Every structure is written in C-alpha cells, then in structure tokens.
Task: inverse folding
C-alpha cells in the first residue's frame, strides 16, 4: 500500500517539532500559528491516509502494530485539536509532535502486513478497538501534559525560570487538563471494555486481564483525585508512569 | 527653518525639579498656544509626563528660537538662572534620534516600558488638535511612531519583568492564567504588599482579604481596595479560599509554618497556592515551598528574576539602537528630499492605536 501520505504527514510533524525547537532557541515567542498550520496539514494528511488504510483493510484500521501506531497518533492529534485552546496548541510541536513523530516513524519502518477483512465484521469488536485506542490517545496526551507540568513545577519551585517556562501554559490549567484527559480516557476505555462483552467472539483471557489492569490503574488515579483531591504534581507523576502500561498492552496485543 | 527640542527628564533633573514642570492635561492647550505665539515659532509639541517635560519646536532662527523658549520657561515656571541651565537641547538630526529613543522606551526610567509610546502620541495629537504642528513636526512624530513599533516588535526590549511587583504579578498569571477567579490575601499592611495587591487587582484578581496586627489599619486598607478585613488571628482560616498570599509584616521571626499550609492545602484539592513573602526578616518558613502545589517566592527570589529581566533588556539596547540608526537614515533622507510617506497632516490612522494605549506614566 502506498504510504506517501503517511510519510508527508510524518514530515509535517517532524517539521513542526523542529520549528518549535528553533523558535524556542531563537526566543521567538510568536511562532504558534506557523507551528499550528504545519501540524494542521500533518493531521489532514494523516486522516486521509487513515481513510485509505480503512478502505484497504475493509474495516477500522487497527489490525496490526502499524495500524495501531497510526491510529494512536491520529487520536492524539484529534484530541489535542479538540481539547486544546490556542495557547496550548502552540506547544503542540514541542511536546506532542515528537511522540507522534516517533510512533509514525515506527509505522513507516514496519511493513504493512495482511490485507482486507476476509470474514464478516463484528461491529462491537470494531467499536471496542477504536474507542479503546482513542482512550489510549487521551492517556498519551495526559502523559505529555504531565511532562509539561513537571517541567514547569520544577522551574517554579527552583525559581529558575527558563525560556521554556514562558512558553508553557499556566500550571493550574495544565493540572486541570491532565485530570480532564485522564477522566475522558477512563470513560472511553470503560465504554470500550463494555462493548467487548457484546462481541461475538470473547477476547482472550490475557487480553482481558491486561485491558482490565489498564482500566483499574487509571480508574484508581481518577477516583483518588476525585475522592481525596491529590495534589496536581502527584497526578502528573501518575499520568506519566501509568502510560507505560497501555504501551506495553498495545505491544503485547499487537504480537497476538 | 530650524528644529530643536528643549527639555528635562529623570536623568537631567531630580524629582523635586521635575514635579514643578508637569503641565496638566487641561492646561496643555493654553501652553501650546503660548509657545506657538512666541515670535518666530512655527510649530510646537509639548511632551509632559512625570519623568520628562520636553518642547519640540520649529522656528525661523534656531538661536533666537532657543533663547525665546528659555525665556518663556523662565517666566512661566519662575526659574532661577541655575535652573534655566538644567534643560538639555537637541538640534536637527539629534532631535529625531532623541524622539525615536523616547518613543522606543530607551530613554525611560524603566528601560523598554511601553507607556511612553502612548504619551508621545497623546502629546502629538494634542498639538495637532491645537493646530500647532505642520509639515515638519507631523513628519517627525509620525515617523517616531513607526520607529517605536519597529523597535518593540523587532527586539525583546519590552519582554520580561523588571521590578519585584511586576515579577510577582507575571508569576501569578503564569501559575493561574486568568486572574479573574483568584482571591488575594495581604498579611501586614505594608506599602509594597499594597502596591503588589493593587497590581493584581488591576490585572483582574476578583477579591482581596486584608489581615494586620492593627485591625483598624486592615479595615482602612481593605476599604481602599474594596476588600474584606479579617482579624490577624483568623488569617489561617482564609487560606483555603485564597490563591495568592502576600506577606509583609514586621514580625521578628517566621510565623507561617508548614503544618498550617499543609492543612489548608488538603482543603484546596490540588489548587496551587502562590505565596509572596516580601518581609525582612521573612514571615514564611522556606520549607513550605516543598509542599505540593505551593510556590513560595521571597524578596530575593523576586529581585533575582527582576534583575535578570533588566539584564536581558539591557542586552537588547544595541539592537534597538541599530534599528533606530537605520530609521534615522531613512528619515534624514525623506526629510531632506520631502519624499517621506508621512507628509500627510492627518494622523487619523494613528488614532486607533492611541485608543488602545493606557495613559500610564513614562
């Protein structure tokens, strides 16, 4: 399958990332709209490629590791554009683009295996997989926001305010964004798991255990935040380490 | 025709002298007409701020014009012969260089401040309304607006905070974003905390609590800032509601400790608390900075950031001067040949910008 669009979109994300690094280095604080435009083009190309991949697969394109990396990148970009007010979008290139760039680069290096769907399509399976991946996209963004939070928190605590500090969104809003992303991700994952119970073919025990583990971990983080009102710093740390669990889950599931 | 500028500013004269030369807005028209009525004076603009008073004039003969203006100032402000010499004089191209530096904030007490740009515009518009400007000063002032904009947008001369108060306010905005939902508490009714709180209110902070050992003083200050006075024994109870706490008491030792703040933070459910300790000796135990979501800045921390801001602005000076020199060459050429695009007498396009500028001080 032709991957030119995916390559061009990856190039856009890399370009956006480079531009953001340059803008920070050159202390040009008004770079956000150029950065946003490059990211926007990348997102459009990514969406068109995903559409073609869906046509090729004859189903929601989440059948192998390549599909998963691309779909995860797309859901991250979608959530960021939907959730992020302009000031947050200005940091898209700096914090989100590297992650998306890495995911898509891996997808470019690996061969696209298999072909279109051979048997009948189970809509519950499609829903389970796609909604769960969008949830993982939300967790990925919570990870990104968590890193941004800790960078800013450290500079504020140490009183060493570097250029990056002035480009970050207010720490209070970052804290709220992390919670919102974790809560959205948890709700979407809950919907994904619920739809799995309606699938014609039950998922394997391993798949079920791993997904439930991810669900339980994020559920506990969200629950503790609502119940005990943990500090935002602790929530940011939780959002960072917890994200490795969905990554491991995706890696393991993609091998089966 | 000769163009010159006669004036004084914070560098050439102390405040006790400068304050005598402030021309209030309501008296500016009369002053402009008086200057314009002097023999041989064709054009005049008076720039009067708390840090400078300058008269830009175009006269038939430079020497006579300067003498006449000095005489006018001497009689108008009852100057002694020594005070008469406090005024600096810029002539021809130096007038343009000086005005471009003023409009760019390079000649201000706070390097790179932007308010002076609005004050220059106001001075010019006042003169234009009084019809005391014509081709020469119209061209010069309109060119200075262009230079001011170029310098501000082409360099970082306006970036960063340069005073303890502005650092505190900027940090508050970096922590909370929009200050409209932020509540401020002052503990100790010192002048610096009062000013910082006022700056926070001017940036949108929603309400203010004032606590002081002398409750009467707290009530007085709360009334002045449209806030609420709370008794000194009760300030701890207010912390869960407060986002920014400014302390500046004369207490000989710290009285805001980790246990009190930790207890309050449990009720704040992760919302940050910004603590500004301006007191010397300090009011706040430095260990509270280790509490999650608490950010403590004492006077030294704020001053260090302000000094860094000033240093960064100073590093921009040569860049600004370069831009001004480039503009000066263009202006000199345009003024000499009469091809400058600022020949129009109508300053209409500048009015929109003027409306956006605050009437704060140079």
Result:
């Amino acid at each position: 399958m032709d991957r030119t669009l995916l390559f061009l979109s990856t190039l856009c994300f890399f370009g956006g990332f480079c531009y953001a690094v340059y803008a920070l280095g050159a202390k040009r604080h008004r770079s956000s709209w150029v950065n946003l435009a490059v990211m926007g083009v990348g997102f459009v190309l990514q969406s068109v490629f995903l559409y073609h991949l869906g046509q090729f697969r004859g189903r929601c394109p989440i059948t192998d590791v390549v599909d998963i990396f691309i779909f995860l990148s797309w859901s991250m970009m979608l959530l960021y554009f939907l959730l992020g007010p302009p000031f947050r979008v200005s940091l898209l290139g700096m914090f989100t683009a590297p992650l998306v760039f890495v995911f898509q680069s891996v997808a470019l290096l690996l061969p696209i295996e298999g072909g279109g769907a051979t048997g009948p399509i189970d809509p519950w399976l499609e829903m389970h997989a796609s909604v769960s991946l969008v949830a993982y996209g939300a967790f990925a963004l919570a990870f990104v926001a968590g890193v941004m939070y800790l960078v800013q928190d450290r500079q504020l605590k140490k009183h060493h305010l570097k250029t990056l500090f002035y480009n970050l969104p207010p720490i209070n809003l970052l804290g709220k964004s992390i919670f919102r992303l974790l809560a959205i991700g948890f709700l979407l994952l809950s919907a994904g798991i619920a739809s799995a119970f309606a699938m014609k073919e039950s998922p394997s025990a391993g798949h079920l255990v791993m997904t439930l583990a991810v669900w339980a971990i994020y559920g506990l983080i969200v629950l503790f935040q609502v119940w005990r009102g943990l500090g935002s710093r602790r929530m940011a740390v939780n959002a960072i380490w917890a994200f490795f669990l969905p990554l491991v889950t995706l890696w393991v599931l993609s091998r089966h | 025709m000769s163009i010159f500028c006669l004036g004084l500013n914070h560098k050439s004269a102390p405040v006790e002298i400068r304050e005598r030369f402030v021309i209030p807005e309501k008296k500016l028209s009369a002053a402009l007409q008086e200057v314009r009525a002097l023999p041989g004076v064709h054009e005049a603009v008076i720039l009067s701020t708390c840090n400078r008073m300058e008269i830009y004039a175009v006269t038939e003969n430079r020497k006579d014009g300067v003498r006449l203006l000095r005489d006018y100032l001497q009689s108008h402000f009852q100057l002694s012969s020594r005070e008469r010499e406090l005024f600096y004089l810029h002539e021809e191209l130096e007038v343009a260089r000086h005005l471009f530096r003023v409009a760019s904030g390079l000649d201000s007490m706070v390097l790179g401040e932007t308010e002076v740009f609005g004050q220059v515009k106001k001075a010019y518009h006042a003169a234009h309304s009084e019809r005391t400007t014509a081709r020469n000063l119209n061209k010069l002032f309109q060119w200075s607006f262009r230079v001011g904009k170029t310098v501000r947008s082409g360099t970082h001369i306006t970036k960063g905070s340069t005073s303890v108060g502005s650092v505190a306010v900027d940090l508050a905005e970096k922590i909370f974003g929009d200050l409209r939902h932020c509540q401020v508490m002052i503990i100790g009714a010192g002048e610096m905390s009062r000013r910082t709180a006022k700056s926070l209110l001017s940036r949108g902070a929603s309400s203010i609590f004032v606590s002081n050992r002398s409750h009467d003083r707290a009530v007085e200050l709360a009334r002045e800032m449209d806030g609420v006075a709370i008794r000194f024994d009760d300030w701890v109870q207010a912390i869960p509601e407060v986002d920014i706490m400014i302390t500046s008491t004369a207490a000989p030792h710290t009285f805001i400790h980790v246990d009190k703040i930790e207890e309050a933070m449990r009720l704040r459910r992760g919302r940050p608390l910004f603590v500004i300790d301006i007191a010397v000796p300090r009011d706040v135990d430095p260990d509270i900075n280790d509490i999650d979501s608490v950010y403590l800045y004492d006077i030294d921390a704020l001053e260090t950031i302000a000094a860094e801001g000033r240093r960064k602005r100073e590093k921009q000076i040569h860049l600004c001067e370069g831009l001004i020199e480039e503009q000066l060459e263009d202006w000199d050429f345009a003024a000499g040949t009469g091809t400058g695009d600022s020949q129009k007498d109508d300053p209409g396009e500048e009015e929109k910008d003027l409306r956006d500028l605050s009437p704060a001080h140079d």
Summary: DSSP finds 15 helices and ten strands in chain B. The two ends of chain B are 30 Å apart (CA to CA). Chain B has a mean pLDDT of 87.
